[in-house]
Amino acid sequence: MDTSAKYINYDERLARVTAYIYAHLDDELDLNRLAEVAYLSPYHFHRIYRAVRGETVITTVRRLPLHRAASQLAQSAMPVEDISRQAGYKNVQSFTRVFSATYGMPPARYRTQGSHAQYQSNSLERSLAMYNITYQNLPDLEVVSIKHSGSYLQISQAFGQLGSWLESRNLITPDSRMIALYYDDPATVAEDQLRSRACFSISKACALEPPIERVTIAGGRYAVLRHRGSYDALSAAYEWLFGTWLLQSGRELRDAPPFEEYLDTPLDTAPADLLTDIYLPLV
Q1: Does the predicted TM-score (pTM) go above 0.90?
Q2: What is the third-level CATH fold of 10-112?
Q3: How far apart are CA 53 and CA 61, in angstroms?
Q4: Residue pLDDT, tens place only, 64-89
Q5: Domain regions of the chain by residue span
Q6: What is the rounded distance in angstroms from the CA atom of residue 134 to the CA atom of residue 78?
Q7: Rounded distance, CA 248 to CA 130, Å?
């Protein structure tokens, strides 16, 4: 046996690619550059990526802007023309054709009848069993974080920047937790003034560089809502959590922001199967 051979962790290398794609979602991505990010030869990168991720890198690059477009349709009044342009389509017709093939309906109809609308239409009729609510007592959790200002739909940019920095230093491990802190209610605070943080938990000590900083998420009692489905339906989950569950539960909220933990990502999970835990701090 050749004991001099160096073990290669392909998951870690492709995780760097994931972070790079998130950070450059609005750029025209050079596939050879993605191979460089993975420290792999272009001759082998695409086969390895497809074998590990279950889809080609081109499919991933095309799918993520479309996923973001669905969230923008559900959670903003941005014109379809602007959304299609930001997603990289030269005209609305092309965007509509691809979007319809992916989500089963054209963008304008999705805005009013998509999965988010189905949740909202009967949310007032749903009982405490609408979602799975559990309770957890958490210790303080120290995370590395970067601030994000503006639309919550754009926090992926902050995750991309933070993830790239951590990956370059081999600080993301399989047990790292991907968390977002949300400080404001998007229904009452202007979009350009919304405050949030993209966070990762890490197990190694490291020196940080601005704008990356350490933040402690306060421990204590939390109600945890597990949401299965696309991110564009999360707003309905929050409405049910605050407007129905909280009123019926008799619980009192603590003066701390809620946070979300992402148990998977759109890179490796279909929108309908995404799992997100919403943590609501309780007294």
Answers
A1: no
A2: Arc Repressor Mutant, subunit A (1.10.10)
A3: 12
A4: 888 888 888 887 788 899 899 888 88
A5: 10-112, 132-282
A6: 35
A7: 13
pLDDT by residue (tens digit) across 94-111? Answer: 999 988 888 888 888 888
**What would the two tokens of residue 194 be?**
């919304």
CB 179 within 8 Å of CB 199:
yes
pLDDT confidence of 63, banded at 50, 70, 90? confident
Tell me the three state secondary structure of residue 6: coil
Q: How far apart are CA 96 and CA 108, in angstroms?
A: 9
Q: Which residue(s) pair with 282 in the sheet? A: 221, 253
d(CA 263, CA 271): 13
Taking CA atoms, 60 is separated from 28, 43, 46, 260, in Å, by 13, 18, 12, 24
- Evaluate whether 10-112 and 132-282 have a shared fold: no
Q: Does domain 132-282 have CATH number 3.20.80.10?
A: yes
Question: For residue range 139-189, what is the model confidence (pLDDT) as tens digits?
Answer: 999 999 999 999 887 888 888 889 888 888 888 888 889 999 998 888 778
Is the separation of the CB atoms in 279 and 199 below 8 Å?
Answer: no
